[in-house]
Amino acid sequence: MINHIDRASPRDWFAVAALGVGSFSIVTAELAPIGLLSLIAGDLGVTTATAGLAVTLYAWIAVAAALASAVWLGAAPRRPMLVGLMMILGGSGVCAGFAESFSWLMGARILGALAHGAFWAMIGTLGAQLVPARQVGVATSIIFGGVSVASVLGVPLASFIGLEHGWRTAFLAIGVLSVLVAAALRMTVPDVSGSGRVGVRSLWRILAIPAFQRIFVATLFAITAHFIAFTYIEPFLSSEIGLAAGWVAPLLFLFGLAGVAANFLTGALIDTRLKTVVTMALLSACISLGALALVGDVLGLVGTAMALVLWGGAFAAILVGLQTWVLKEAGEDALQASAIYVALFNGSIGFGAAIGSTLLSLTGLSGMFLIAAALVVIALIATAALREPDAVPAE
């Protein structure tokens, strides 16, 4: 995808910001049930494990939707497509909020998952079409900053709303936010054409390129490692570290703030020092997870907070860095490469939760965090041989 833009207008940057809020909406919608499973299960008369399908099945459907969107929706004009997908996500939230049975809820979730995968695959390439090539990293940091914020703050926020006003209200709130984002996208996103249908063969062609293989391996292992550990962060802090229950929420909030701060920092560096950003982020994630696993019981409150800040910032930088690397490496193949990245990311969420539940009984919480650190090392090795993508000089 060749970018011939010389200067982005204020409207273009408002569009980038709206896409960032949109990414927050879709990932919050995906992960919201994590903090509401007991409430959903009790209200709809199913087991907690069954209610968990609202997360795992959603993630796997999003994988298929991301890949399908690259094959069949590549030629669609971006603005109406994004507005329509966000309206579908809004409808999914509203339908979930009024669900009278678990099958109704799952139908609403499946609808949202289809929109989720396609929306994320589309916005992965749109930043490169809205701003000059030299600012793609900044735009990507803003757009996918919503993902990292949702990953660490969206679940606690949805849980808080659910506990105070009922789980249905949490889904309704996500639905309303999605509709508002759709309106913002309608007003700010310019008429951007699609890149044309790409076909299944082009996906296989991307997967055959060694540079992409390394990026995708890094994505698979880094994101899986994150969700192995982060899914169980609350019991880890209380049981393994021994912190009082009142400290868990503030520490998770600090974790999220570190991710937001890291987005600003990586946005300033990522267009010229992408490999350095990704390498340091992976190394930081490995160190923080390893420290929590090996010496977490002696870190104390301040040491634990420092480790969580390092981890939260590293995760945000990894997410934005790898997505940006895909876009810079792909060029004209940005849509299909981004679709594969999105599929791997969402698949890794499911892998992380599933592997974590298995490891919990075998290794305990500390062992699980140590395995997560080892998986990040594999991601670090995968990116080590990659060259720095060509930087675009500032004017």
TrEMBL record:
<feature type="transmembrane region" description="Helical">
    <location>
        <begin position="368"/>
        <end position="386"/>
    </location>
</feature>
<dbReference type="InterPro" id="IPR036259">
    <property type="entry name" value="MFS_trans_sf"/>
</dbReference>
<feature type="transmembrane region" description="Helical">
    <location>
        <begin position="82"/>
        <end position="104"/>
    </location>
</feature>
<dbReference type="GO" id="GO:0022857">
    <property type="term" value="F:transmembrane transporter activity"/>
</dbReference>
<dbReference type="GO" id="GO:0005886">
    <property type="term" value="C:plasma membrane"/>
</dbReference>
<protein>
    <submittedName>
        <fullName>MFS transporter</fullName>
    </submittedName>
</protein>
<feature type="transmembrane region" description="Helical">
    <location>
        <begin position="206"/>
        <end position="229"/>
    </location>
</feature>
<feature type="transmembrane region" description="Helical">
    <location>
        <begin position="57"/>
        <end position="75"/>
    </location>
</feature>
<feature type="transmembrane region" description="Helical">
    <location>
        <begin position="241"/>
        <end position="265"/>
    </location>
</feature>
<keyword id="KW-0812">Transmembrane</keyword>
<keyword id="KW-0472">Membrane</keyword>
<feature type="transmembrane region" description="Helical">
    <location>
        <begin position="339"/>
        <end position="362"/>
    </location>
</feature>
<keyword id="KW-1133">Transmembrane helix</keyword>
<feature type="transmembrane region" description="Helical">
    <location>
        <begin position="110"/>
        <end position="131"/>
    </location>
</feature>
<feature type="transmembrane region" description="Helical">
    <location>
        <begin position="12"/>
        <end position="37"/>
    </location>
</feature>
<feature type="transmembrane region" description="Helical">
    <location>
        <begin position="277"/>
        <end position="295"/>
    </location>
</feature>
<feature type="domain" description="Major facilitator superfamily (MFS) profile">
    <location>
        <begin position="13"/>
        <end position="391"/>
    </location>
</feature>
<dbReference type="InterPro" id="IPR011701">
    <property type="entry name" value="MFS"/>
</dbReference>
<keyword id="KW-1003">Cell membrane</keyword>
<dbReference type="InterPro" id="IPR050189">
    <property type="entry name" value="MFS_Efflux_Transporters"/>
</dbReference>
<feature type="transmembrane region" description="Helical">
    <location>
        <begin position="138"/>
        <end position="161"/>
    </location>
</feature>
<feature type="transmembrane region" description="Helical">
    <location>
        <begin position="167"/>
        <end position="185"/>
    </location>
</feature>
<dbReference type="InterPro" id="IPR020846">
    <property type="entry name" value="MFS_dom"/>
</dbReference>
<feature type="transmembrane region" description="Helical">
    <location>
        <begin position="301"/>
        <end position="327"/>
    </location>
</feature>
<dbReference type="Pfam" id="PF07690">
    <property type="entry name" value="MFS_1"/>
</dbReference>
